[in-house]
User: Fold this.
Amino acid sequence: MRMALKPRMGAAYMAVRRVGQLLKKVTRALDKAGVRYAVVGRAR
Amino acid sequence: MDLLARRADLSAIAETLHRVGLVQIEVLGVTMFIDRRRPTPKGGVHLVIAGEKVRPHYTHPAPDLDRAVRGVAAYPVVDLPTLVTMKLQSYRPIDQAHLIDLKSVGLLDQGLLRKVPRDLRDRLRAILRTAE
Assistant:
């Protein structure tokens, strides 16, 4: 059971990390450009 | 991730995000920006247009940006009653899961009922009745 769960947990961790990186990249770029926005969701 | 913005700023957003490697596409009427190197809509930035309905059958439009607050996170977010209203309006299983999560950390209570539109209150009551 543990063996089967591990790869899926790794994929979930990577997905959360990717969303975090995307969030940082996008919000920094929009702030720098002076565009008004709000983040209304980040789960995928 | 989902981003709330004004339609008037769409071209400025497209230009800005293009510079960081994201390209604009339309999928089922939703404007989104996806990574050129990993072009999957699921992992992209979905745009919610302020003041417009996300789906034609919704009773409420997406909020305006004057509901955005800074200081809660490193980026602007909408205030809690507005976010809850958006989630109650969409009310897909994923939105219900998010609402239950908010309840489990003590952010949803009876006091919020007065702050959401009358026609969405039964949905909030159902979430408040949900056992964690």
Observations:
- Chain B touches chain A through 35 residues (CB under 8 Å).
- Chain B has four helices and six strands.
- Residues 1-49 of chain B form one domain.
- The radius of gyration of chain B is 16 Å.
